[in-house]
Amino acid sequence: MASLLREIVIDCEDPERVGRFWASVLEWPLVESESGFYWLSSTGDYTAAPPLLVFVPVPESKAGKNRLHIDLNPSGCDQAEELERLLSLGARQVDVGQVDVAWVVLADPEGNEFCLLGRRVDA
Amino acid sequence: MASLLREIVIDCEDPERVGRFWASVLEWPLVESESGFYWLSSTGDYTAAPPLLVFVPVPESKAGKNRLHIDLNPSGCDQAEELERLLSLGARQVDVGQVDVAWVVLADPEGNEFCLLGRRVDA
Questions:
Q1: Number of neighbouring beta carbons within 10 Å of residue A29
Q2: What value does the mean pLDDT take over residues B74-95?
Q3: Which of B5, B14, B110 best probes binding to A when mutated, by most A CB atoms within 10 angstroms?
Q4: Interface size, chain A vs chain B, as Cβ–Cβ contacts under 8 Å
Q5: CB contact (8 A) between residue A76 and residue B1
Q6: Distance, in angstroms, between A44 CA and closest chain B CA?
Q7: Which of A14, A111, A22 lies closest to A63 in space, CA to CA?
Q8: Do A68 and B63 lie within an 8 Å CB cutoff?
Q9: Is the ipTM of this complex over 0.85?
Q10: CATH of B1-60, one of 3.30.720, 3.90.930, 2.60.40, 1.20.1250
């Protein structure tokens, strides 16, 4: 008896735009629900291994630095190569006060902060 | 060449307190790093299947509703039983404007919103 971490839900002004960005980042297929939201899993199937990413519409804009954020590993390439790819997808580098760190602080198209770690994963 | 979703990072005033709560929620072992933060994985091993949850200290308090939140499935019990357990661990029910929904909106000890879904998973 416990809880299973099932989904990470991201409030969006434009769920399709933010969903498309993260679909490209993770190379996961984007699925549009019948209820006006979008979601991703590694296979495009709802029963895929968690977590799913779910993009839901909200009326309000992002305000201030997010309290939760996602960290990514470069997969099959090094950090510099993946950084170049993320920037080409619409990410931008942001300053949240980091100084000399091994990761790169970025933001998605609606300003949600995330980090690209230095450690490469070949999976 | 892509990015792998590695970690969910949660800014905390008291990383140990918030980490202990989530360790109990997920029944994952809590690990204290040498650098003043705490983290969880399903096995307590850094190489466990992602995502890890990472609790980092920040000077500022939470302000406003989080833009990202976690959704949980009850595992091995129904929603009502798991809700009772979560409340006993220190979660509290919160009103973020939800009306008649199948999930329960809760907050962790520092007010981070999360949802307990209705769908039970026997895993």
A1: 13
A2: 96
A3: B5
A4: 137
A5: yes
A6: 15
A7: A111
A8: no
A9: yes
A10: 3.30.720
- Fold matches, A1-60 and A67-123: no
* Distance from the B83 Cα atom to the nearest Cα atom in chain A, whole angstroms: 10
The amino acid occupying position A96 is V
A43, A67, A106: best to mutate for the B interface, most B CBs within 10 A: A67
Which pLDDT belongs to residue A115? 98
A13: left (phi over 0), alpha (psi -120 to 50) or beta: alpha
Average pLDDT over chain A reads: 95
The dihedral of CA A86, A88, A92, A93: what is its sign? positive
**Residue B46 region, left (φ>0) first, then alpha (ψ -120 to 50), else beta?**
alpha
Confidence band of B104 (pLDDT split at 50, 70, 90): very high
The pLDDT value given to residue B123: 56
Q: Determine whether domain B67-123 maps to CATH 2.30.33.40.
A: no
User: For residue range A64-100, what is the model confidence (pLDDT) as tens digits?
Assistant: 999 999 999 999 999 999 999 999 999 999 999 988 8
Residue A123 has pLDDT above 60, yes or no: no
User: How far is Cα A10 from Cα B87, in angstroms, rounded to an integer?
Assistant: 24
Residues of B at the A interface, defined by Cβ within 8 angstroms:
1-11, 25-27, 49, 51, 53-54, 62-77, 81-82, 85-86, 112, 115-117, 121, 123
Mean pLDDT of A9-29: 98
User: Closest residue of B to A77, CA-based?
Assistant: B1
Domain boundaries, chain B: 1-60, 67-123
